[in-house]
Amino acid sequence: MMAFTLASHIILVPLGVALPLITLVMHGLGLRRGDATALLLARRWSAVMAVQFAIGVVTGTVLSFEFGLLWPGMMGRWGDVFGIGFGVEAWAFFLEAVLIAIYLYGWRRLPARTHFLLGLPLPLVALLGAFGILAANSWMNTPRGFTLDAAGNPVDVKIWKAVFTPMFGPEYWHFVFAMFVTAGYVVAGVYAVGRLRGRRDRYHRLGFTVPFTLAAVCTPVQFVLGDSIARQVFHKQPVKFAGMEIVWETATHQPEYLYGRLHPDGSISGGIRIPQLDSVLAGFRPDTRVTGLTSVPASDRPTATQASIAHFAFDTMVGIGSLLLLLALWYGLVWLRRRRLPVSPWFFRAAACAGVASVAAVECGWITTEVGRQPWIVYQNMRVADAVTATRSTGLWIMFAVVVVVYVLVFGSFLAVLLKMRSRWRLADEQGGPRPPKETPEHETPETDTPYGPRAGGSRL
């Protein structure tokens, strides 16, 4: 149940974290150049941002309840230590709801500069929400900031140490840039599809260029951050690293397996074996000693199946990241040499696929993080079996069925609203696109005129 709800919720997270920044960039560009098309895009994206936020409220609330319902052992013992992260996230959520409401309300009702300035805190608040969640998750990977009493309960909690754990920095920035990359490619992919269907006007060109440029700039940074966090896992969570890389015995000159499956006896089937590469990647030298799964008892390490799942997810994430890096380099080279977008339809086909691929990479990243930590829910301090609820399985299956039905309805509604908005905007574009307010007939829909200034006839609605 937790895997399903988290995997569903995380689809919305990139837009929740990064779409405010993408929208504000387009908004600022429109104001600076007096560009009605850029302002129209920003206004439409702000509407998508609001709908996405509303859907995220539902899926995020379900997750919040699940922490208490499914993991009472963890929350009862450790809530005082790492619960501050959820508190920060809740405050960020509240602030974001207020700021989104103000930003949406401000179109045509506030002076352009004031409206833009009131929107500027939105990206920061979105990052604050990510801060809270990643603080809690990084603590689960490298728990700090407490001592244990004779009964094994945490006492003498030091909040700052609990928040800023050794894994917090690498995990937070890796996550944030993943959100920028994913949201940029998702938004750009919509306009890439439009271009492939023959829509080559300035609206689609600008709608593609701004988010894709942001994603392309962040992609190499994200690649470096990904390498950094893998190295931190190697040092701070060596057994987890062994699971991610399906390393059975501790040794130097460890080979790297691209995919492959680990068996309970330590043998590996399938995949591509590259001699010594794992040691080189871990410590830049072939004689780097890599800890194996057998360095700890079987009860303290992932099973062969769990290690194989984490390894598959990790390799998929790295593979997708590598392909996105090549796409970003293609875009950058063409832009630097010719100051224009690539013209090859294969580039736009790849750009259209990049959004879905980057969402898949985010999913794989969370699978790697959570499955690779097994059997620990709090690394080396509490096992999953000690944290999970004692509720009978029948009740859990009923709850799971209800959650699935709710999520199908919620995501179905989300898709229906987006398609309705798209149809409305396309109809407005066919009627002439953005025009100055004085030239806009009173009966036309709001999307056919520029976002600032009163409509014809004085209507403010």
* Low-confidence runs: 436-450, 453-461
Q: What oligomeric state do these chains adopt?
A: single chain
End-to-end distance: 43 Å
Strand order of the largest sheet: 1-2
Query: Could you say which structural class the secondary elements and strand pairing correspond to?
Result: mainly alpha
How would a textbook summarize the main sheet?
A: 2 strands, antiparallel
Give me the strand/helix succession: HHHHHHEEHHHHEEEEHHHEEHH
Q: What are the defining features of this structure?
A:
globular, 4% strand, 15 helices, two-stranded antiparallel sheet, 461 residues, mainly alpha, disordered C terminus
Write structural notes for this entry.
This protein is mainly α and 461 residues long. 69% of the residues lie in helices and 4% in strands. The chain has 15 helices and eight strands. It has helices at residues 2-9, 13-33, 36-70, 72-106, 112-119, 121-141, 159-163, 168-196, 202-236, 238-244, 277-283, 304-338, 345-372, 384-387, 393-430; strands at residues 147-148, 154-155, 256-258, 261-262, 268-269, 272-274, 376-378, 382-383. The chain has a two-stranded antiparallel sheet with strand order 1-2. It has a two-stranded antiparallel ribbon with strand order 3-6. A two-stranded antiparallel ribbon has the order 4-5. A hairpin with a 3-residue loop joins β7 (376-378) and β8. α2 (13-33) packs antiparallel against α6 (121-141), α8 (168-196) runs antiparallel to α13 and α10 crosses α12.
